[in-house]
Structure of DUF4908 domain-containing protein:
Amino acid sequence: MVFGWLCLALPGHAQVSANFQSEDARAQRDRGPTTSLPDSGRYVSETGQGFILDRSNTGTLMRFDRSTEVWVLRPSPAPRGDVIFRNDAGDQVLRVTPNGGMTLYTTAAPQGAPVSLAGPAPELLAPTLTAFQLMDFILRQSDRATRAVGELIVVDMNIQPGSESVATDALSTAVDAIVRMARSPSLRRDVSRVRMIIITDVGPRQVSFSRGTLRIVIDPDAGFAGRPSSARIVRVISET
């Protein structure tokens, strides 16, 4: 069994009128059509990739079928009134048109695949663990990362009471990134340098990699947005 470490310190009049009308029409054109954002629910793309989209709160959350990672998507305007939803690594994930049409972008469908609503879906919630379950979870995640890389990877979690939910999600997401990199011929060499994962809630939110240590500082008050995505973790490790 591989051991990790846990430390719990438990956003003219006629001419004037014509000018106003012209300016108003120009403003309407500049604004473009209003995009109808998608509702919460389960969606399926033409390629068969299913996912849950949760817009029940202020942000937009997404989880693919057969995956535990919840993605936090941020909207940005695009040409023709479209809205692009990106993850925290800047990758385009969804594109929504003014009439509500949606396209999903993945590594399997980089050019995009049309999406349709399949039905309702439950709200995406962060996991909750007892202190004993948390310790067991840390040991299992350390073992999972170790088996993927082939070298001992120690987990050091230093958090305050109330941070457990975001911290466990951050650890799971980090190990998902490590496992994915270990399976990739082009990324395996990069991830083989990882020897320790540190999860802490002390300091500003960030993720860094230096001298074999992947360090993630979470924001427990931000929920899923309080930790980096696996895509961002992969990028940090591979580019450092």
About this structure: The chain has five helices and 13 strands. Residues 131-239 form one domain. Confidence is low (pLDDT under 50) at residues 1-33.
